[in-house]
């Protein structure tokens, strides 16, 4: 009995999404800096191609917990290339690349006390 088919039957285009592996920013940053980087990315992302609807869905997924994120990408028809959402496609083949900093926090985030 092989492992390959024993999981729930999942559409070929959909992968179980997960948070990116732990990563470190080039320098320690504060939560405010991280938030600003994220805002700048989401403001400019639609200019790199693809549709606003998919970018909006990816932003909602990036800011949601994994179960909700999975539901969002599935219902938006997003084709997940990398399970951590760093590379996705829409049904027309447009590529969407998300930097890790919009998907999770770096290990060297400066925590405010």
Could you list some keywords that capture this structure?
globular; two-stranded parallel sheet; 11% strand; alpha+beta; 113 residues; 5 strands
Task: Give a description of the structure.
With 113 residues, the chain is α+β, with helices and mostly antiparallel strands. Helices cover 35% and strands 11% of the residues. The protein has 4 helices and 5 strands. The strands form 2 sheets. It has a 3-stranded antiparallel sheet with strand order 2-3-4, with no helix packed on it. The chain has a two-stranded parallel sheet with strand order 1-5. Strand 3 and strand 4 form a beta hairpin.
Topology:
Elements: E1 29-30, H1 31-44, H2 52-62, H3 66-76, E2 79-80, E3 87-89, E4 95-97, H4 100-103, E5 109-110
Parallel strand pairs: 1-5
Antiparallel strand pairs: 2-3, 3-4
Helix pairs in contact: 2-3
Region (Disordered): 1-22
Domain DC-UbP/UBTD2 N-terminal: 14-112
InterPro entries: DC-UbP/UBTD2_N, DC-UbP/UBTD2_N_sf, UBTD1/2
Structural class computed from helices and strand pairing: alpha+beta
Strands of the widest sheet, in order across it, are 2-3-4
Number of strands: 5
Chain-averaged pLDDT: 88
């Amino acid at each position: 009995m092989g492992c390959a088919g024993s999981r729930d039957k999942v559409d070929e285009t959909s992968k179980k999404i997960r948070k990116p592996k732990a990563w470190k920013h080039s320098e320690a940053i504060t939560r405010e800096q991280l938030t600003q980087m994220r805002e700048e990315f989401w403001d400019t992302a639609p200019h790199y191609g693809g549709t606003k609807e998919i970018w909006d869905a990816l932003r909602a997924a990036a800011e949601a917990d994994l179960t909700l994120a999975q539901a969002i990408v599935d219902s938006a028809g997003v084709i997940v290339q990398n399970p951590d959402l760093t590379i996705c496609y829409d049904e027309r083949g447009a590529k969407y690349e998300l930097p890790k900093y919009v998907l999770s926090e770096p290990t060297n985030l400066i925590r405010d006390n």
